[in-house]
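ESCALATION

Customer reports they have been waiting on this structure for their group meeting. Please prioritize. Original submission:
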Amino acid sequence: MQHRIAFYDLDRTITRAGTWTPFLLHAVIAHAPWRLALLPVVLGVAGLRGIGLVHRDTLKQVMHRAALGTLTPDRAERIAAGWLARVGPGQIRRGARAQIAADRAAGYRIVIATAAYAFYARAIATELGADALIATRTATDARGRLLPRIDGGNCYGPAKLAMIEAWLAEQGIARDAAHVRVYSDHVSDVPVLAWADEGVAVNPHAALASVATARGWRQVDWD
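Update from on-call: job pushed to the front of the queue and completed.
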């Protein structure tokens, strides 16, 4: 039996824009406006990131700490549900919904693989009826609360491919027993796109469009 699996990136692939900053803004404005006082700290670290002095993972964790602090899983779920209800559905590309429906009808398992944190990306995965979510996870304390610290690596670039391969192993699926499609907008996903049987560049930015053209990958516009 050959498995059919379609892996979808989230930010700017399924969605029209990134999700992390809009999610944090919703969380702060709706639930903890006092945290806006910490914005200068975030902007300072973002500036250091812009000139290459801070790693993207560090910026991500600083943003988490400033906007959310430590969260219980239930509270994180409520915030994510509220955010999705307010701004999420309109941000999901129509073409993404159509392709997911087509892949599902063709017998593909739908898996979202994203650098977004699982505690809020899960809301979108549920909205889209995805079969699984592979995402960045947070560390937890002894009480099960979510800490502003990445656990197990950021699901980005080569690490995303490693996490996908680990997921396949957990499912008991050998790579040669699966036909894999991968959809992404960003050049950071070249390792996963090259590993796939079918790599598809979705509304690609210039760097990925150049690679896709050179390698003969399909390019699509989901808007």
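Sent to customer with the following note: The chain has one domain: 3-220.
Escalation resolved.
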